[in-house]
Each structure stands twice: as structure tokens, then as C-alpha cells.
Amino acid sequence: MTLADAAGLLGATLILMAFALVQAKRLDPHRAAALLMNLFGASLVMASLARRFNLAAFLLEAAWALVALWGLARLAAARLRRR
């Protein structure tokens, strides 16, 4: 197994863990933990695509990462408004 493969597997595991924990109501999808799991997971999958690029997979993971970043930005903005 290559480093790229390991990164992709870890990324996919993070995304699937976040999804499963949200479905089990053990993780709030609007909180930082779930968003960070999705952001890092998608980033690792995108990094794994450097070895064997796949446009569809890259676009899916890029969108996944951008949505997670958007959620994190909304959390940060809400915290700033409360101060």
C-alpha cells in the first residue's frame, strides 16, 4: 500500500465515521468536530488522488471540503458576533 492509498483510506474512514456518528446522534453535524472530520477526510482523499487523478472524485471531495469550510466559517462568525 502506498502513502497515497493510506491517506485516501484514512480520509474515507473519517468521512464515513462522521456520517455514522451523525446518524447515531452521537455527533452534531453543525459543530466543529463533524465539520473538521469531513474537511480533513475530504482533504486526505484529494491528496490521495495526486497519484492517480480522477476528476469526478476530486470534484466531489473538493465540494465536500468547501461545504465543511463554509460550516466552520459560519461557526467562527457566530462566535465573533457573540463577543
Can you tell me about this structure?
- By secondary structure, the protein is an all-alpha fold.
- It has one domain.
- It is 80% helix and 0% strand.
- The chain is globular.
Distance between the termini: 48 Å
Average pLDDT confidence is 97
Shape, principal axes of CA atoms: globular
Order of helices and strands: HHH
Helix share of residues?
over 70%
What count of structural domains? 1
Q: How much is the radius of gyration in Å?
A: 14 Å
Question: In percent, how much strand structure appears in the residues?
Answer: under 5%
Largest sheet: none
Number of helical segments? Answer: 3
Which blocks of ≥5 consecutive residues have pLDDT under 50? none
The strand count comes to 0
Structural class by SSE content = mainly alpha
List the helices and strands and how they pair.
Layout: H1 3-23, H2 32-48, H3 55-82
